[in-house]
Amino acid sequence: MPGNELLPIGLAQALLVLLVAPLFTGFSRTLRAKLHSRKGPGILQNYRDIFKLIKRQEVVPAQASWVFRFTPYVVMATTLLIAMVIPILTLQSPLGMAGDLIAVVYLFTVVRFFFALAGLDSGSGFAGIGASREMALAVLVEPTIILVLFVVALLAGTTDLGTISQKVAAGEISYFSPAVWLAMASFAVATFIETGKLPFDLAEAEQEIQEGPLTEYSGRSLALLKWGLYMKQVVVIALFLAVFFPFGSAAVVSTSSLLVSTAVFLLKVAGFYAIAALLENSMARFLLFKAPAVTWVAFGIALLSFVFYLANV
C-alpha cells in the first residue's frame, strides 16, 4: 500500500503511544510496588500528575534561552514522529521511505541532545550534572544500538524498517541464526537501559541525578517533558518489537486486523514492562562509573553477532 494511504495509520500509532505511555509507566510503578510489598501509586497516577502540572504556573530561569523553552515541544514532536515512523500496527512503515533505521536513530539522538542541552541551558549545576549523566549513558548505549541495527540491516539487505519486519515475520531472517539471537539479546539490554530502568536509572525520580535536566522545569513544560519521556520508553520498546518480534502486526490493512494488532502490541509492551519490573526488583542502582561493566558486555555481544554474520554462521 502506498505510504500516503498508510499516513492515517501513522497518526493512529502516534495517538496510541500518546495515550497509553503514561498508563504503561504507571503499570510498571504499580507492579514494582507490589513486588516490594507496598501499596505504591495507582496505575493512573501519571495521568493525574500530568494534568495537575498543566494547570500550574510555569517558571523559567532568568538565564535560560529559547533552547530551554522549546525543548519540551521538540521532545514531544520528535517522539510522536518516531511513533509514526516505526511499524507498530502494520508490517510497513506508515511513512514509507522515511521508515529508515538510520533516520530513527538520528531522531532518538535529537531527543537526547535537546534534553541534555536544556539541562545545561537552565544554568543549574544539578541539572548540568544530570545532563552529563544523560550524555554519558548515550556514549555507552548508542554504539550497541547502532551495531545491532547494522547487523539486522545486513541480514535483511535493507535499512527499511517495514521490509525488515516483513522478512522477520515471514521467516526469511531465521531465529536459528546465532547472529540474530545475539543481536536480539544485545538490543534487549540496550532497550532496557534506554527505558530508564534500574540498575542504570530510575525514570520517575525527578530529584535524582538521572532526571537532573528536569530540575528547573515546572508547570506545562514539565508535564510535556515527563509525557515525552514516557512516550520515549514506549517507542524504544516498539522499535525492539518491530525489528525482532513483529508477529501480530497487520500484514493486510483492515479494521479487524488493526484492532488485533493493537491488542497484540499492547500485550507485548505490557510483557516487556512486567519483565523489566521483575528485573528491577532484584537490583540496586549502579553508580555511573559501574555502568560500563554491563554496557560493554552488551556491545561485545553485538560485536559477536556481527562476527557470526561475517562468518555466515
TrEMBL record:
Transmembrane portions of the chain: 6-28, 66-89, 101-123, 135-155, 175-193, 234-252, 258-279, 291-311
Record's bilayer topology term: Multi-pass membrane protein
Entry's Gene Ontology cellular component terms: plasma membrane
Top-level lineage group: Bacteria
Subcellular location field: Membrane
Recorded coiled-coil stretches: none
Annotated keywords: Membrane, Transmembrane, Transmembrane helix
PANTHER family: FORMATE HYDROGENLYASE SUBUNIT 4, FORMATE HYDROGENLYASE SUBUNIT 4-RELATED
Name by which UniProt lists this protein: Formate hydrogenlyase subunit 4
Organism: Neomoorella stamsii
Organism ancestry: Bacteria, Bacillati, Bacillota, Clostridia, Neomoorellales
